[in-house]
What does this fold into?
Amino acid sequence: MCILTQLKILKVPISRPIRQLIMSPREDFLAIVTSNTVHVAVLPDSSHLSLKDTSPLNLKTYHIGPTTHVLERAPIASAIWHPLASSGGCLVTVTVDAVVRLWELDKDNRWSFDSPALAVDLRKLVNGHSSAEDFSPSKYGANKGFSPDSFEMEVASACFGGSAVEGEDPWAAMTLWIAMREGDVYGLCPLLPSKWLARPSMIIELSETIACSTSSDPSSGYSQRTRNQLQTWATDLASQESSLEGESSYSERLVMQRPLRPNAIPKLQGPFMISPEIDDMFDVTDIYAIPAINNDEADPSEDGEIADELEPSAASLLCLATADGKVHVLTGAGAVEGRWLPTRKVMKPLSRSPYSSADLA
It folds into this structure.
């Protein structure tokens, strides 16, 4: 039996070849990506798509960053909808020249499509020593000079570490993973819009995770500065008067404000390297993250209730696709937690964390 459904032609004012279409989490926006530009179309109500009228439907479309994402600037490496976005939509764009921009889109505010709410140059951030430094992207045409980071930090792709489902590591959905073409991987956590959605249990899980991380046990490996920053961030969350927003799957989400301290721009963690190193040419084309999930199939206790303490599953996985048709599964990724630069300059060498990997042809 074959069932035919009516097709509707949606027209957008884009002349260049389209490389990717990405639906927003609430299905009200559609990101349309070309080689150097990103456009966002406002999707019509489903009732307009079920009409018998078969004539094309023109969509209201915005050019994201009309002076930023243009042919004269760096190509687009990735465009990703933030999994924790509150109202409207939050789109994160990452360009090949390692600039991350966070766009908080509002259909009633045209300016929100013109300028990003947050923009950071990862090539500046990787060498940053203090949160007081300027990590904003250089203006177009500015002489940047030579830097080895121009080659080592050419972005291939980026993704978020999770989607904030029940049982997922609480840091996962606010961690942006960035893969460089030569194989280095970086993590940016927490990367959040000014307003974000959280499961009620997620706030509890974050508080418990931070409490464990900031314990006074010297073997934990956390510096006093890191402990203070995590505690400050957790205290801000706990003191907020959150409210419920949205419908259906969003009705159980809390609307949270991004903590003002330590900083809106987190520390760039990495580079993480593959171990053992790959002998042949390593040309990364894509990255995908599989977050660690608590095992919800624990054996019931004697009274028939599920035990409170659930053993976590295997650590988070990162998958790197390469131009030679292979997928490298990084099995030692673990969970990245929130980190920020100090308020004052502290000189420390940059460490590289090895990953073990398995190849899938």
